[in-house]
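// run 5 | inverse folding | seed 20
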């Protein structure tokens, strides 16, 4: 169980020296208990207290990083049951699982490696590729793993055969894959392989009690980085197991379950598999493995993950500046919008669809959409005028006209007086921008 502020206070120097930036040691202790500050901000903490506090202040769910170089994925380190409590920290990894004896292995690997998208300005992808030893043959497993290693994905090697694991993992260990397949029957041999190769271990337990027992034994055998799989037999059990694991780790401080979870919703690409995967992304998988899905299904899953793993207090934003869409000229129109990513990319998409080269002036509204920003005084005639002046647009254009979103038509008069530009009221909905640019603007 995590220490309370008072328990932490008792371990601090109690000199109230303020070097940590807090007026008293008690205030620092309270902030530390709420994980708002790191212990190293107090330079005078004793070694003994540091060791006691370090273990207590470690995140209740360990962060485990897979991959190497530019291909890394860190998951875990979660502190919340509900995203709105603060935020979820590290996006759940999404992986495509393939069988080593699949006659279509080559095309499946190619398909898995093609699951890359750009959405609201961010590159998203299925980062992981899991090779399953369905053949039961060590040579076939190694051969499939070697093929998978030629893609740009992070590997998961799934077999319950320690010899097959060692042979396949040794050749690709530089890429820091996950060795996935420790069970109650093989954990000693699997732990030895993971320890020797310096790789994290995926642990399968039949239920939470067995998992808890296994992780303690494996930790005792010298492997600290683990993923845990409760081997849930149904979507309902999966939701229940993942929720219980998260609760026990966060609320009861159960360190033996403080590892990211790995799950395989199963279902061979069906919609049910995608629905179950979506549930696991939301609650509370560290890695979800799916069969090679069509692109549209994968995009839906990744868009969901992208939405869940944003900070609810910090909307995704684009840089506030002028964006040139197409081959802009001095007579190109200027459209105003906010720096909320979803708003900006919706406007950008419609401007592109119009094929009318345009400037988009993005004003800083702290990531709020148009109406919210207007209501919160983050999009005012003064702030828009400031953005216009800083934009340098005046020197690029032979007109002084700006198109504002229809939702803020009410500020058109004041804005015109403030900035000295002719203010045109554009459509309310972005979907009407193409016809506006082709008809009204012309
Ligand atoms: Fe107390 Fe350490 Fe902060 Fe000084 S730096 S006030 S000793 S917590």
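// decoded
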């Amino acid at each position: 169980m995590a220490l309370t502020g008072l328990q932490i206070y008792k371990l601090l120097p109690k000199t109230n020296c303020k070097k940590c930036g807090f007026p008293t040691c008690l205030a620092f202790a309270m902030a530390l208990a709420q994980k708002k500050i790191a212990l190293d901000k107090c330079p005078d903490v004793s070694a003994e207290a540091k060791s006691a506090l370090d273990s207590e202040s470690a995140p209740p769910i360990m962060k485990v990083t897979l991959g190497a170089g530019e291909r890394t994925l860190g998951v875990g380190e979660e502190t919340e049951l509900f995203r709105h409590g603060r935020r979820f920290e590290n996006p759940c990894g999404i992986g495509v699982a393939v069988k080593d004896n699949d006659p279509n292995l080559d095309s499946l690997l190619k398909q898995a490696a093609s699951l890359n998208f750009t959405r609201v300005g961010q590159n998203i992808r299925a980062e992981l590729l899991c090779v399953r030893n369905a053949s039961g043959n060590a040579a076939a497993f190694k051969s499939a793993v070697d093929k998978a290693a030629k893609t740009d994905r992070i590997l998961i090697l799934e077999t319950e055969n320690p010899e097959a694991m060692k042979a396949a993992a040794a050749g690709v260990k530089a890429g820091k894959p996950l060795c996935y397949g420790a069970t109650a029957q093989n954990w000693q041999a699997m732990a030895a392989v993971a320890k020797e190769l310096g790789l994290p271990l995926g642990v399968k337990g039949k239920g939470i009690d067995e998992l808890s027992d296994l992780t303690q034994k494996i930790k005792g055998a010298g492997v600290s980085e683990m993923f845990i799989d409760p081997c849930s037999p149904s979507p309902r059990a999966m939701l229940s197991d993942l929720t219980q694991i998260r609760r026990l780790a966060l609320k009861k401080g159960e360190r033996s379950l403080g590892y990211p979870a790995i799950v395989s919703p199963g279902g061979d690409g069906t919609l049910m598999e995608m629905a179950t995967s979506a549930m696991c992304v939301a609650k509370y998988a560290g890695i979800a493995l799916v069969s090679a899905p069509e692109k549209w299904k994968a995009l839906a899953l990744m868009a969901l993950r992208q939405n869940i793993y944003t900070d609810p207090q910090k909307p995704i934003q684009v840089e506030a500046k002028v964006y040139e869409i197409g081959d802009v000229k001095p007579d190109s129109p200027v459209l105003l919008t906010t720096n909320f990513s979803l708003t900006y990319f919706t406007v950008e998409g419609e401007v592109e669809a119009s094929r009318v080269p345009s400037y988009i002036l993005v004003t800083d509204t702290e990531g709020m959409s148009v109406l919210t920003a207007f209501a919160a005084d983050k999009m005012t005639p003064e702030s828009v005028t400031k953005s216009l002046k800083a934009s340098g647009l005046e020197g690029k254009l032979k007109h002084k006209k700006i198109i504002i979103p229809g939702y803020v038509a009410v500020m058109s008069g004041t804005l015109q007086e403030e900035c000295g530009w002719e203010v045109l009221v554009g459509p309310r909905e972005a979907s009407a921008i193409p016809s506006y640019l082709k008809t009204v603007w012309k």
